[in-house]
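hey
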């Protein structure tokens, strides 16, 4: 094992531990995180595996394949965050409307 592999694996394990604390109540997120950790550690230990996988999928290099997967995952994460923000904005709007109606009824009854 080279020193960069040890550093990368250490960083991956630290990220997994931090993620486990953040998603402590959600088993599904923890399992997905564990799967991602095992995949990442495998790819760090066996870097030629990405090239072999890339050739099987018709991509020239393993780094290109990882870039494509990263772009897809990034776009998916942005979409999820956007939908989450939109949902939160809708909930805030509903709360503010309910408070405005309640305050208007309260001040109208005086």
């Amino acid at each position: 094992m080279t020193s960069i592999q040890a550093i990368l694996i250490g960083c991956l394990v630290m990220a997994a531990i931090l993620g486990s604390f953040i998603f402590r109540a959600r088993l599904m997120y923890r399992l997905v995180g564990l799967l991602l950790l095992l995949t990442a550690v495998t790819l760090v230990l066996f870097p030629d595996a990405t090239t072999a996988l890339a050739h099987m999928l018709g991509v020239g290099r393993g780094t290109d394949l990882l870039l494509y997967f990263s772009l897809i995952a990034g776009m998916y994460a942005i979409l999820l965050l956007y939908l989450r923000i939109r949902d939160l904005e809708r909930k805030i709007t509903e709360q503010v409307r309910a408070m405005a109606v309640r305050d208007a009824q309260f001040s109208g009854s005086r």
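Residues 67 and 73 are 10 Å apart (CA to CA). The two ends are 77 Å apart (CA to CA).
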